[in-house]
Amino acid sequence: MPQRLAEFKAEFFKALASPLRIRILDCLRDGSRAVKDISAQLGIGATNISQQLAILRSKNLVVANKAGSNVYYEVRDPRIFKLLDVAREIFGQQLTDVRQTLRQLRAEARA
Question: What percent of the chain has pLDDT over 70?
């Protein structure tokens, strides 16, 4: 893989490295939302939400559309949700594996 492509991918994943940004993306699964709506749903201040959306926007993960006095954000490419879903499945499997290992260790400790 060329170095520039690897760097691009790393920057892309850095944008997803924040739990709050992932929560924001999840809020956008059903379509565009205003900052105030995302803020209310997550219980986090609008300023913080706006800052995180700016990062997502700078990485071309979301787009903004102004309607009146509101700015609505939506995911640029809905395939991001597939990526997040696959990541959830991978993490779920890892947790299952860890639980199995812990059960085995406990069983061995009792023996």
Answer: 100
